[in-house]
Specification:
alpha+beta; five-stranded antiparallel β-sheet
Amino acid sequence: MVMDMYSFKLPLIQIFTTILLSGCGHLTSDLSAINVSSSSPALSQFNISPHESGIFSQVIKLDDGRDLVITEGSDEPRSIGSVTALLYRNLDLGDFETGLSFAREGFVTDAVLQEPGKVKVTTTSAGSGSYLQEYYICIGKASLNLCDSGLE
């Protein structure tokens, strides 16, 4: 099951919004008064949506109930940089388990659970070639590793 970043529970988005507002000197204690719609400029500043910010970020719900978050580096050029995979026992609680970062060429266009324990991350190069490159992340009991596609 694949979810985008808007599938987070409302309290998590409210926390991000509160942090943003407190940094601007406009802290409010009434979280119900904060607009958390998907078109909110506050959310796009946190690069929560790959659709609004241009930064890829996706949550993949694994069969065992854990959550895998795949993101591009937020302050990097789109054409080159890093991919980060963060594995959570429970993302809603922030129960982080392990992580993995690796270099990428191009921008991330897709992250798909290929089979239990393996996610394919696809990048597309910048420029006229639009070459695709695939990276595979193998998910262990408490580990993340780059691995082969398994198709050779």
